[in-house]
What we know:
By secondary structure, the protein is mainly beta. It folds into 2 domains: about 5-40, no CATH class; about 70-190, Immunoglobulin-like (Sandwich), CATH 2.60.40. About 10% of the residues lie in helices and about 40% in strands. The chain has 1 helix and 14 strands, in the order αββββββββββββββ. It has one helix at about 5-20; strands spanning about 30-35, 40, 70, 75-80, 85, 90-100, 105-110, 110-115, 120-125, 135-140, 145-150, 165-170, 180-185, 190. Strands 4, 5, 6, 11 and 14 form a 5-stranded antiparallel beta sheet that branches. It has a 4-stranded antiparallel beta sheet with strand order 9-8-12-13, with no helix packed on it. The chain has a 3-stranded mixed beta sheet with strand order 3-7-10, with no helix packed on it. A hairpin with a 2-residue loop joins strand 1 (about 30-35) and strand 2 (about 40). It starts with a helix and ends with a strand. Mean pLDDT is about 75; it is low at about 5-40.
Amino acid sequence: MKTMPLLVSGVAAAVLLAGCGADRSETPTTVTVTATPSTTTAAPQAPATTTTTTPTPPTSPSESTPAVPQACGNDDLTVAAGPVAEADTARRVEVTFTNSSQRVCVLVGYPGADLVTAAGGVLVHVARRPQNSAPHLELQPGETASADVQSSAIDTETGNGCGRTGTLVVTAPNTTESHLLEVNLPICDATISAVG
C-alpha cells in the first residue's frame, strides 16, 4: 500500500509550511492531514514557548555611608589645664580637651567656665556663647582641642587690683560634667574662647 509514504510526505509538507509561514502567531497551529477518510494524523505542534529570564547583573556592594560622628560625651574627654601665663595685667590659661575614647567624636560650641571658692561657691560664671558661632571640631581618638580662659589682675571699673582669685572649673562643649582644675585666676573680666 502506498498510503504510508504519501502520509509521511504530506505531514512533512504541512510541518514545513507551518514553520515557514509569513504570518506567525503567538498561538501554536495544529495541522491535520487526511490520507484516507478514516485516518487522521495531527502534525506536531510548534515547540512550546520558553521564557528566558535575563538575570539582573549583580550589584556591586554599595558603599556604606560613613557614620556621622556623635558629640563627645562626658566619658569621651580628658580635660586638663596648662600653666597660667602672665602678660602685664592679663592672665591666660590654656584648657585642653583630649578625646580619650576609641571613636571619633565632635565638639561643637564653647566650653563653660566658672571661677569658684575653695568651698565650691561660684565667684564668676562665664556663660557659654551661642553654638552657632563656634567651630565644629571632629576629634580622632587621642586628638586634642583647646580653649583659653583669660582674666585680668586689674578691676577695669575701679582701676584697682582684682581682690580675689578663684579656682577654674570647666565644662566641655556638649557635656554636663564639670572639671575642677588646679588653676587659680583673678576673677575680674574672665572670658573663655571657643574650642579650636
